[in-house]
Design goal:
Helix content: 55-70%
Strand content: 5-15%
Number of helices: 3
Largest sheet: 2 strands, antiparallel
Order of helices and strands: HEEEEHH
Oligomer: single chain
Strand order of the largest sheet: 1-4
Radius of gyration: 23 Å
């Protein structure tokens, strides 16, 4: 009885391991620490073809910051500049790809930049607080 339980649990572990392996493993996921995603607000797109349903479309572009020192004023400023430029870019691409659907590009830019800037500011705060923690811990 004990031997059959041991064999069954071993087979179960092997099957679970192959299932996880088949899904792929990229290493531990500690959250988004390398980029900020800039997303344009969703727009309503009407399709002219009969039988087609109107859809809501959005577009996103990641902004990398793994090359910046977010603890410094210059690095934090550079990330914020990148976020603003990418917000302008993502709204421009959305307007170009779906002409006539984006009535106010300025509103799109402001909303995309506002939301992404919250994430950028969190990344900056995380980098600075981690630095303060390690600096105090290793004194």
């Amino acid at each position: 009885m004990m031997r059959s339980v041991l064999i069954a649990s071993t087979v179960g572990l092997l099957l679970a391991g192959t299932s996880a392996f088949a899904q792929g493993y990229d290493g531990p996921n500690y959250g988004d620490t390398e980029n900020v995603i800039v997303t344009a607000p969703r727009i309503h797109v009407q399709r002219p073809a009969p039988g087609m349903v109107a859809t809501r479309i959005s577009m996103s572009i990641p902004v990398r910051y793994d090359d910046l020192n977010l603890r410094s004023w210059r690095g934090a400023r550079q990330l914020r500049v990148r976020v603003r430029e990418t917000a302008f870019d993502v709204c421009g691409r959305l307007k170009a790809e779906y002409p006539g659907t984006l009535d106010d590009a300025d509103t799109c830019f402001r909303e995309a930049a506002r939301v992404a800037m919250l994430h950028a500011d969190r990344a900056i705060a995380r980098a600075r607080s981690a630095h303060r923690y390690y600096a105090a811990y290793y004194r």
